Design the sequence.
């Protein structure tokens, strides 16, 4: 892939991540003004994820037919409009409608992954996905701190700023991002990409190796998104941190993410004999650190355990995406990556709700739940994925 094209794509995703990272620490304080409690916040997150789950495979398949660039731009514009609507909301239903709109157009990451899959050869894909993840991580590194700073001028200011960033990302992509799926290589829309068609899901799940990896995506998404609710509940209700302090913790997580995905994965791949084994150890280490979070009863212990959790978690995401792409047919990259993103979104729907129920009884129990799911992922990869490392 040309370095310029990869740089522009990474820059667009940095802007996208900035818009997302800016609002994350402030969603709860902003929504609470409307009387939304932690359970309501979980449903606010779930509304976004539900519609992302429904729409992302369609966006991926449409990018196979109409090209990556227009679908990526539509996704970014949808984010911009939804954030503006969220900032100007005067009722709870408007908050939910804004999140739903963002979910419908929220398939930009799967399209960005398809752009890489179009141009990058199999061996280099995990590194390219890692760079994409690092771009997102860099935006997430700066965004929360920026959101905390802007909140001093009013809680709506960060949301308007994030909306402008997403709009800027779409303009940047329009003028500088090249199309990587030319017309002569595009597929035709068929009956199996109807809205939420079961055959689209089944085709992806029946693809050798890919189907198992997509299920791993679901398992780890359940655990990872439950962790997010646990993180918010623990920092606010137990540690009593302010939005600015929470933003700082997000920033620290972003530092780890950038270091791992920007160069750490490349280094680790030289140590481990295969991507499959590295993925295995990442899930094993994640399970241990999540279990440690269950017993972290001070801010210092919590921060240490959280940062150690981010190390394997940051490595696992691009490794998993790279393995899925490498084992997918070339003419179905967008569709399969879209299905994979939808299963990740399913975890974003169910994971927070389960975490909310657990938090009602014991907040640290959320981390135990997430640890158990990582253990399941560990054994699935051990039995089904690691043996394929020597067959390729």
Sequence:
């Amino acid at each position: 892939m040309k370095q310029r094209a990869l740089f522009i794509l990474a820059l667009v995703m940095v802007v996208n991540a900035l818009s997302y990272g800016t609002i994350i620490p402030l969603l709860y304080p902003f929504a609470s003004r409307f009387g939304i409690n932690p359970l309501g916040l979980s449903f606010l997150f779930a509304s976004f994820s539900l519609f992302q789950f429904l729409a992302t495979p369609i966006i991926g398949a449409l990018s196979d037919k109409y090209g990556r660039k227009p679908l990526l731009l539509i996704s970014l514009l949808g984010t911009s409009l939804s954030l503006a609507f969220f900032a100007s909301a005067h009722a709870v239903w408007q908050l939910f409608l804004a999140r739903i709109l963002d979910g419908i157009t929220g398939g930009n990451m799967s399209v960005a992954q398809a752009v890489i899959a179009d141009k990058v050869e199999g061996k280099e894909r995990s590194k390219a996905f890692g760079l994409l993840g690092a771009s997102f991580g860099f935006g997430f590194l700066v965004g929360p701190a920026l959101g905390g700073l802007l909140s001093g001028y009013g809680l709506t200011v960060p949301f308007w700023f994030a909306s402008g960033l997403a709009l800027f990302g779409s303009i940047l992509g329009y003028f500088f991002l090249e199309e990587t799926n030319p017309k002569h290589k595009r597929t035709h829309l068929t009956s199996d990409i109807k809205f939420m068609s079961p055959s689209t899901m089944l085709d992806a799940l029946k693809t050798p190796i890919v189907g198992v990896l997509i299920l791993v995506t679901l398992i780890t998404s359940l655990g990872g998104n439950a962790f997010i609710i646990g993180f918010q509940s623990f920092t606010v209700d137990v540690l009593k941190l302010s939005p600015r302090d929470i933003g700082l913790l997000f920033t620290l997580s972003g530092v780890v993410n950038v270091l791992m995905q920007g160069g750490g994965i490349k280094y680790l791949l030289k140590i481990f004999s295969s991507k499959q084994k590295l993925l295995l150890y990442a899930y094993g280490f994640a399970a241990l650190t999540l279990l440690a979070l269950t017993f972290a009863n001070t801010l210092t212990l919590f921060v240490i355990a959280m940062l150690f959790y981010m190390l394997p978690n940051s490595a696992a995401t691009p490794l998993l995406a790279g393995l899925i792409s490498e084992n997918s047919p070339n003419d179905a990259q967008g569709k399969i990556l879209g299905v994979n993103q939808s299963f990740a979104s399913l975890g974003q729907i169910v994971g927070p709700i389960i975490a909310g129920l657990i938090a009602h009884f014991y907040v640290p129990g959320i981390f135990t739940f997430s640890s158990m799911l990582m253990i399941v992922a560990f054994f699935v990869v051990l039995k089904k994925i690691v043996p394929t490392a020597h067959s390729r």
User: Anything to note?
Assistant: Residues 176 and 227 are 37 Å apart (CA to CA). The two ends are 23 Å apart (CA to CA). The chain has a mean pLDDT of 84.
